[in-house]
TrEMBL record:
It comes from the Bacteria. GO terms for molecular function: O-acyltransferase activity. It comes from Lactobacillus amylovorus subsp. animalium DSM 16698. Belongs to the transferase hexapeptide repeat family. InterPro entries: Hexapep, Hexapep_transf_CS, Hexapeptide_acetyltransf, Trimer_LpxA-like_sf. The keyword Transferase applies. This is Maltose O-acetyltransferase. Keywords: Repeat, Transferase. The keyword Repeat applies.
Length: 172
C-alpha cells in the first residue's frame, strides 16, 4: 500500500470515528441516523434498510448495503477489504463481518491481508456469528448464532459451530 493511500485511509478513519461516536452516543431521528451512516459508508443507505444502533466499523467506505436489509445492534464491520451485503439480508445482534487479517509470520504481523466478504441475497447471519475474511455466504443461507465462518457457505444451507460446518440443506 502506498504512503499516500495510507494517509487517505487514516483521514477517512479519523473522520468516521468521530461520526460513529456521534451516531452511537447521541439521540437521532431515523433520518439523521441514516444520513450519518450514509456519510460513514460513502453511499446512500436505502430507506428500506434498517440499521439498529450502536453500529461499528473501522473504516466505513468499503461497505455496500442493499435494499430491505436488517442489521441489528452491536454489529461490527471491519471493511477495509470490502463488505457487500445484498438485498433482503438479516444480520443478528453482535455479529462480526471481517475483511481484514494479519500475517502469521512475526515479521509480517503488522501487514494487512485484505479479502472481501460477500453476503448474498436473503442470507441470515445469526447473533454473535463471525464471518472471516474472504468468505461468501450464499443466497438463502443461514449462519447459526455464534458460528465462526472460515469457508464459503453454499446457498440454501444452514451452518453452525466453530469452525462452522453445514448441518442441513434448506428446501426451496
Amino acid at each position: 500500500m502506498k504512503t499516500q493511500d495510507k494517509e487517505l485511509i487514516q483521514e477517512i478513519v479519523e473522520q468516521n470515528q468521530r461520526l460513529l461516536q456521534n451516531l452511537n452516543t447521541q439521540r437521532h431521528y431515523e433520518c439523521e441516523a441514516r444520513q450519518l451512516i450514509s456519510e460513514i459508508t460513502g453511499q446512500k443507505i436505502p430507506k428500506s434498510t434498517e440499521i439498529r444502533l450502536p453500529f461499528y466499523t473501522d473504516y466505513g467506505h468499503n461497505i455496500k448495503i442493499g435494499e430491505r436489509v436488517f442489521i441489528n445492534s452491536n454489529v461490527m464491520m471491519v471493511d477495509l477489504g470490502g463488505i457487500t451485503i445484498e438485498d433482503d439480508v438479516l444480520i443478528g445482534p453482535g455479529a462480526y463481518l471481517l475483511s481484514v487479517n494479519h500475517g502469521l509470520k512475526p515479521k509480517q504481523r503488522k501487514e494487512l491481508e485484505l479479502k472481501p466478504v460477500l453476503i448474498k441475497k436473503n442470507a441470515w447471519i445469526g447473533a454473535r456469528a463471525t464471518i472471516c475474511p474472504g468468505v461468501i455466504v450464499g443466497e438463502n443461507a443461514v449462519v447459526a448464532a455464534g458460528a465462526v465462518v472460515t469457508k464459503d457457505v453454499p446457498k440454501n444451507t444452514v451452518i453452525a459451530g466453530v469452525p462452522a460446518k453445514m448441518i442441513k440443506k434448506i428446501d426451496e
